[in-house]
Amino acid sequence: MARAPLLVGNAQAFWGDDPDAPARLVRQRPDLDFLTLDYLAEVSLSIMAIQREKNPTCGYARDFVEVLRSLASSWRDGSRVKIISNAGGLNPVACGHACVAALAELGLGRLKVAAVYGDDILPIIKNSSDERYANWETGAPISTVRDRLTTANAYLGVDGVVSALRAGADIVVTGRVADASLTAAAAIAHFDWEPTDYNRIAGATVAGHMIECGTQACGGFSTDWLELPHSAEIGFPVVEILEDGSCIVTKPHLTGGSVNLRTVKEQLLYEIGDPGNYISPDATVSLLGIRLDQLAQDRVLIEGATGRPPTSQYKVSATYRDGYKAHAIITIFGRHAVLKARKCGENILHQLEQVGIKFERSLVECLGSGASVCGVEIPDHSADLLETVLRVSVADPRRDAVERFSRQIAPLVTAGPQGVTDYSAGRPKVQAVFGYWPTLVDKNLVQQEFEMIAAEAA
Amino acid sequence: MKKSGIKIRLGEIAYARSGDKGSSANVAVFARKAEDYERLRQQLTEDVVKKFFDPLGVRKVTRYEARNLDALNFLLEGILGEGGSRSLRIDAQGKTLGQAILELTL
With 90 as the cut, is the pLDDT of residue B86 above it? Predict the structure, then answer.
C-alpha cells in the first residue's frame, strides 16, 4: 500500500524574510511533517564571517533561535513538525547549542538538535596550489584573491541531514547545503530511498526547488502578480511528496496568492540554466520530462522528473574582500528631470575629482527612465519624465574616499536644480564589498558530518 | 520572418521569469497559449535575445527548449557584469530582465 505523502513546507526564503511566517504556516498546517528555512546567500555568509571574527560563538543566523521560540506553543499543542535549516551558517555547532539552550528554557528539552557541517572549505582553499580553484566564470587563478578570501563553502547534499534525521533529530541546523537538498533529505530519510534512487531523488529535488524561495511558489515574483487574489496575505508553500518522487505543490487554505500552472512553471525554471541538466549535489536532474496537472484550486501535481548520478565535484561559493561602496539616492522633480539628475550625478563626481578623489568605479543612474536595463531598447519616455530618482554609486579600495563621497550628496539640496527633494534618509552608508568567486571542489576532499547537540550541564 | 506580419509586444503572448546565477542570469519565456510556442521558437532566437540585451554587456546567449513547460530558457552569460555585491547597478541580480524581455517587439 502506498505510504501517506510527506508534507514539507518552506517559511523562509532568505535571511530577512517574514519573521512570523514559520509559526503562521505551522498553525495553518498543523499536519506538516517538515519545515525548511533558508537563510544563506553569498553575502549572508560574508556577514557571518565578520560576526565570527569579532566573536567566535557567532557566525550563524540568530533570528533562527527566535523562530524556534515562536514555534514553542505549536509543539506544546502536539505538532510533530521537524525543522531543517541552513541557519547554522559558518557555525552550525554554535547555532545548535543556542537552539538547545532556548528549547530547554521553553520546557522543550525533549526535542533533539543536530548540527551538520563540513561545508566550510576555506582552510583547504587557502592552502591549495594555484592550479586549483580557479574562478569558473573568468578562469582567473585563486592567487589573485587568496589573501582576501573571507568565506569558501561547498554546496553539500543530503547526506549529513539524512544521517541526523535517522539518528532521531527533530531540528537540524546546517551550514551551506544546497537549498533543494534540505527538502530532498527529508524525503530520503522518510521513505528510506537508496542514495542511487536517482529518479525519486530528482523528484524530491524538484519539490525542494519549488519551495526554496518561499512565496515565489505561490505567485510571488510572478508576471501576473497584479491579478493574484489577496497578495497581502500571500501563503508560503507546502509540497506533498509522494513515495514515487512526484509531488503536489499547494498552499494553506485562506491564504492569498495562487498555485497554478503558470506560477509553477515560472518557479520551475527560476535560476535554471540547462533544464535538461539541473546539477544538484544529489543527482543531475532533467526537468524535460515533467508533466504538470492542476488537480484542484491551488494544487498542482508535478511528476516525471528524472535523475542521473551526480557529478564528482561540489559547487563552491567563495567570497573575498574587495573594498567599499556606497549608493546615494535623491529625488528630482520638474521639467527635464532626467537631464537635471544626470548633471547632478556628474557634478558630484566632478567635485570629488577636484579634491583629488577619483573612484575605481562609479555609476550614475536616473531611476524611472529604464535604468534597470540601461540601454536596452524599450519604450523610452525619459524626455517626458517630470520626476526621477537619481542614484549615484561609487566603489573603491579606500574606505575614506567612499566616506568622503557620502558627504557630497547633501550640498545638492541648495546647489542643485529646483525640485530636488527627499534627502530625509541622510548620508548613504558605506558598505564593505565582497566579490563572488565560484569554483568547484572534488567531493572526496570534503567530509560532511553531523553531531547531536547535548544540553550543557547546568 | 514575421509569420503573422503584425508586430506585437512579446508580453501579449508570453510571460517570463528571470533569476541570477553568479554574473550570469537566466530568463525563461513561456507561451501563454501552447499554440504560440512555435512562433516563439521561430522568432525568439539566440541572436534576437543577444541583440536585445547587448547594452547590458551579455557575453553569450544560449537557448534551451522546454516544450513540456511551453518555455524557452535563455542563459545570459556575463549579463550582470560583476556578480555578487560588487555590482553597482540598481538591478544587480537580474530581477528586471523578465519584465524587460516582455517589451521586445516580435
Answer: no
Q: Is 0.90 exceeded by the ipTM?
A: yes
What domains sit in chain B, N to C, each tagged with a CATH number? Answer: 10-82 (3.30.70)
CB atoms inside a 10 Å sphere around CB A414: 7
Q: State how far the Cα of A235 lies from the Cα of A254, in Å rounded to an integer.
A: 8
Check if B16 contacts A (Cβ < 8 Å): yes
The parent domain of residue A363 ranges over 319-434
Segment 52-91 of chain B within 8 Å of chain A by CB:
52-56, 62, 64, 66, 68-71, 73, 75, 78, 82-86, 88-91
B39, three cell numbers: 512562433
How many helices (H) and strands (E) in chain A? Answer: 12, 19
**From start to end of A334-454, where are the E strands?**
361-367, 387-396, 420-421, 431-442, 449-453
Q: How many domains does chain A have?
A: 2
Q: Which of A253, A117, A239 is nearest to A180 (CA)?
A: A239
CB contact under 8 A, A435 and B26: no
A-chain residues near B90 (CB < 8 A): 365, 367, 371-372, 391
Q: Is residue A444 part of a domain?
A: no
Are B26 and A379 a contacting pair at CB < 8 A? no
Q: Are strands A299-303 and A34-37 parallel, antiparallel or unpaired?
A: unpaired
C-beta atoms of A43 and B24 within 8 A: no
Rounded Cα gap, residues A184 and A186, in angstroms: 5
Pair (A16, A65) in one structural domain? yes
Exposure class string for A419-448: b at 16+ Cβ within 10 A, else e: bbeeeeeeebebebbbbbbbbbbebeebeb
* A439 residue type, one letter: T
Instruction: Establish if A371 touches chain B: CB-CB under 8 angstroms.
Output: yes
Tell me the mean pLDDT in the region A340-362. 98
- Partner residues linked to A303 by β-bridges: A291
CATH of the domain at A344: 3.30.70
Beta-bridged to residue B104, according to DSSP, are none
Mean pLDDT value across residues B51-78: 97
Tell if the CB–CB gap between A223 and B103 is shorter than 8 Å: no
Q: What is the pLDDT of residues A304-337, one digit of tens each?
A: 999 999 999 999 999 999 999 999 999 999 999 9
Question: Taking CB atoms and an 8 Å cutoff, what residues of chain B touch A375?
Answer: 54-56
Regarding whether A324 and A347 lie in a shared domain, the answer is yes
Cα–chain-centroid distance for residue A434?
16
Q: What is the pLDDT of residues A20-46, one digit of tens each?
A: 999 999 999 999 999 999 999 777 888
Classify residue A285: in a domain, yes or no: yes
